[in-house]
Amino acid sequence: MAISHERWERHRHLFQELGFENNKMVAFNMGAPGFNALTSSKKLVLKATEQALARNESEFLLQYGPCLGEYQTLEALAKFLSQEYGDEVNRSSLMITTGATNGLFFLASELFRPGDTVFVEDPTYFIAISILRDDLGLNVVSVPTDDEGTDVEALDRLLLQHKPKSTHVTTERQPFWSMVYLIPTFNNPTGKTISPERCRTLINLARKHDVLLFCDDVYNILNYNASEPPPRRLFAYDDPTDADYKGHVLSNGTFSKILAPGIRLGWCESPLRLQKIFKTSAALLSSGCCNHYMSGVVGAAMETGLLSQHVAMLRTKYTANVKAASKVLRENLPEGVSFAEPKGGYFMWIVMPDSANASELLELTKREYNLSFTLGSSASPSGSFKNCLRVAISYYEEDVLVQALAKLCAAIKQYLNPKK
After folding, report:
1. Which residues, 6 or more positions from 291, have their beta carbon under 8 angstroms from its beta carbon?
2. What is the pLDDT of residues 332-373, one digit of tens each?
3. CA torsion, ordered 318, 323, 328, 329, to nearest 10 deg
4. Which of 258, 251, 260, 249 is nearest to 216 (CA)?
5. Which residue, among 61, 60, 67, has the nearest Cα to 284 in the 3D structure?
6. How far apart are CA 96 and CA 266, in angstroms?
7. Residues 308 and 281: beta-carbon distance below 8 Å
8. CA–CA dist 31, 15 (Å, integer)
9. Which H/E stretch holds residue 388?
10. What is the largest CA-CA distance in the chain?
11. DSSP annotation of 231
């Protein structure tokens, strides 16, 4: 993912800088809200800003904030998440971050040191691999997955294999020798959700091997089954009433997918022993609450119900996109190519025959169809899934999405059957 430095000062957003957005190309790479969704977000932020600044002594929002976040904002966040999850979230478990990317970088850097070993499901979010391996200098070990999520038997074997080799010295501030990075709900890139049985097994493994389960819970709220709440987050399976409970799960969330990535705001839900570590971080003691001012603005949006209304609109919009996209793929993908209709989140995962190479397909789609997508192999710590591709359904309106997917199906047919 190379950044263009040509005329860099004219780029208005990241996707222009990366070369994804132009007048000709439809780029399925972009896992973000599109223009119309952000137009709604802009109106919400304007109203919420007026409400936040109208509060008594709102000047405090311009001061350094309390390290984990201001009480009223955290209380509003707890109520919002409890409503959207359909499950209780406690204010005392929450802290404010500047988004899931910052959350991963900051929280992992507090708990681990370069050279430590971490385990990552395969496939997973491709930039998370780079953050852990390249930015933080951690040794990344891939863990296989299947239709139910993480292969827990393989994970058990890998933890047993690597723990004796670990040089990490556990301390009060770094209590785990390793962590497992997961996207349990509406996974990026596959769209899959770890089954309840697997979730319970993961909790047992985390306690058995004393490792942290680090969950990127960024799509949970975008549940497209209107008749029931989203799947229970893994954090909720780590029951504090259990006799052997210590707190082995961390939930890393963001407003980027449900409001706007440009506001750079997120949250972390973690057990008390980790909250104590993060609260006394030198970085937070210097800066105070991450993005304190914007947290107050979004806090007002949650208190007044503006954000819940916006999320409901996004669910309706993305549900329509997923259904329309699935219809196109079912009707037009050639034999031997499969996908699973996601029940939430941003992504669809297309699997070609084992002999196919998505890199070759990408060259064809760029050259002849003005289409791009994310390679499945980029999401793999082991470089696997070369026959797979990830398609985002959030950025484009339904009509553009449908037309572009029909072209993608035609390109796949051409690639797999070049003589026809």
Report:
1. 96, 98, 263, 264, 265
2. 999 999 999 999 999 999 999 999 999 999 999 999 999 999
3. 90
4. 251
5. 67
6. 6
7. no
8. 10
9. strand 388-392
10. 72
11. P
User: Nearest-CA neighbor of 312 among 403, 420, 226, 209?
Assistant: 226
pTM over 0.85: yes
DSSP-derived 3-state class of residue 120: strand
How does pLDDT run across 87-103, given as a tens digit for each residue? Answer: 999 999 999 999 999 99
Nearest to 346 by CA among 398, 390, 402, 308: 390
Preceding peptide of 123 cis, ω within 30° = yes
With tokens 């209709």, the residue in question is 341
Distance CA 356, CA 139 (A): 30
* 128 residue type, one letter: A
pLDDT at residue 20, rounded to an integer:
86
Which residue in 377, 380, 336 sits closest to 359, CA to CA?
A: 377
Residue type (1 letter), 258: I
d(CA 284, CA 378): 33
Please count the residues of the chain: 420
**Contact by Cβ (8 Å): 390, 347:** yes
Phi, psi torsion values for 236, nearest 5 degrees: -70, -20
Q: Which of 101, 99, 145 is nearest to 122 (CA)?
A: 145
